[in-house]
Structures are given as C-alpha cells and as structure tokens.
C-alpha cells in the first residue's frame, strides 16, 4: 500500500515539475504528454527504490535531477546547457515548495516523524506541493510570464560566458550545496529540510533576476 501511495504521489509531482519547466520556458508539450507521463512513471520507480538503499537514500532527489537533465537533453532534444537550466529551475522550485509545505505542517503541530511515518500524510504532502506548482504554472500562463531564451533547435551553440555562466553556476552551486547538506545531515532530516529549503528559496529570486537579464540581453 505504501508503494502504491508513494508512486501515485510521485507521478503527480513529476507531472507538475514538467508542467512548470515547459510553462516557464514557453515550450509546447501537448503532443508529448504521453512521453511525459511515461517518464514520470519511470522516475517514480527510481525515486521509490533508491530511497530503500540506506547509502544513497538521502541523495535520491539529486540522482533524479541528473537523470532528468539527461532525459530532457536526449528525449526532448533540448541543448545540454539549457536542460541543466530548465531542470535546475524545476528542481529548485519543486523542492522549495515541498519543503515549505512540510515545514508548515511541522509548524502546525504535525511532527516530522509523523509525516515520514504516515503514508497518507506523505501522499497529501506530495499532492499539495504538486497542486501549488500547477497553480504557479496557471498564473505564469495567465500573466504571460516566462522566458524565451531557450532555443528550439538542439544544435544551438551556447557560449558559457556572461549571464549564461552565472545561471549555470547558480544552478550547479545550489544543487551541489544541497547535495552536500543532504549527505552531512542524513540523520537529521529536520535540519536538512530547513537548510536546503532556505538555500533554494534564496536561489529562486536570483535565478529569476538573471533569467530576465538573459532574456533582455538576447532580445537586444
């Protein structure tokens, strides 16, 4: 039962992350919805089974981030650099939202041990986080926000200089720092959640600022 609930929640989470990435970077994805669903199902298996291995359980999210970068690059033919940027945006946003949801539950009196030990609470957390991301996607679509700098051609040449270098450094640094925090605090989930969530919440406005700057630079 725990397997079914976790996988169901994970699939919904991955679908919302895909939706956020493609909405934020103005990608059309209706023709690829079945591929997105299949990838979400497969990644939910990766998420579940890697968490069963004590040595890598806390690093499961970061293993999946690497796989998502490869998936977007190979299957969706997004240039490798932009796959990192897009997945970084989706990963940071998704983690920040879920972290804030869990911390909100904790602040309302639900202990972290109860959250981790109750399959229904885990599912509710996953569904609520995904729903918030979908709401953000809807807002982006209605307001016509989003960025235009990701090219449609997989052969696009990318120079890792200027704003490109800053965006890449920001994503790599935040993901690497969070990965190190996960390893060092693997026995202290509450501390890991607080520090990693704070890191990503700080990263989001910086990412948005430099993305807007890159959009402006590319348009000029």
Structural summary, described in words:
The chain crosses the membrane at residues 6-25, 32-53, 59-76, 88-108, 120-141, 162-186, 192-212. It is a single chain. The chain is mostly helical and 220 residues long. It has one domain (2-219). Helices cover 77% and strands 0% of the residues. Helix 4 crosses helix 8. The radius of gyration is 17 Å and the shape is globular. 33% of the residues are buried.
Descriptive tags:
220 residues; mainly alpha; 8 helices; 0% strand
Task: Give, in order, the helices and strands.
Answer: HHHHHHHH
The helix/strand class is mainly alpha
What is the total domain count?
A: 1
Helix fraction?
A: over 70%
N-C termini distance: 55 Å
Residue fraction in strands = under 5%
How many β-strand stretches? Answer: 0
Contiguous helical run count: 8
Per the principal axes of the C-alpha atoms, what is the gross shape? globular
Mean pLDDT: 91
| Biggest sheet character | none
Give Rg in angstroms. Answer: 17 Å
Uncertain residue segments:
none
Keywords: Membrane, Transmembrane, Transmembrane helix
Transmembrane segments: 6-25, 32-53, 59-76, 88-108, 120-141, 162-186, 192-212
Please outline what is shown here.
With 220 residues, this protein is mainly alpha-helical.
SSE arrangement:
Elements: H1 2-24, H2 33-50, H3 60-74, H4 80-107, H5 112-117, H6 119-143, H7 162-184, H8 189-219
């Amino acid at each position: 039962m725990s397997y079914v609930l976790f996988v169901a929640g994970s699939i919904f989470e991955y679908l919302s992350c895909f939706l956020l990435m493609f909405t934020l970077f103005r990608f059309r994805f209706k023709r690829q919805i079945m591929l997105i669903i299949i990838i979400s199902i497969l990644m939910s298996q990766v998420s579940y089974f890697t968490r069963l291995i004590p040595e890598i359980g806390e690093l499961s999210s970061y293993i999946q981030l690497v796989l998502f970068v490869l998936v977007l690059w190979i299957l969706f033919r997004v240039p490798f650099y932009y796959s990192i940027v897009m997945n970084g945006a989706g990963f940071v946003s998704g983690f920040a939202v879920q972290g804030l949801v869990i911390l909100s539950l904790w602040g309302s009196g639900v202990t972290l041990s109860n959250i981790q030990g109750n399959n229904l609470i885990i599912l509710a957390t996953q569904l609520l986080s995904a729903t918030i991301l979908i709401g953000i996607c809807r807002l982006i679509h209605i307001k016509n926000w989003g960025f235009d700098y990701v090219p449609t051609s997989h052969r696009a040449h990318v120079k890792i200089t200027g704003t490109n270098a800053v965006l890449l450094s920001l994503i790599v640094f935040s993901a690497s720092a969070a990965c190190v925090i996960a390893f060092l605090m693997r026995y202290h989930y509450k501390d890991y959640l607080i520090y990693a969530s704070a890191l990503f919440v700080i990263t989001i406005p910086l990412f948005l600022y430099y993305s807007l700057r890159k959009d402006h630079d590319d348009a000029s």
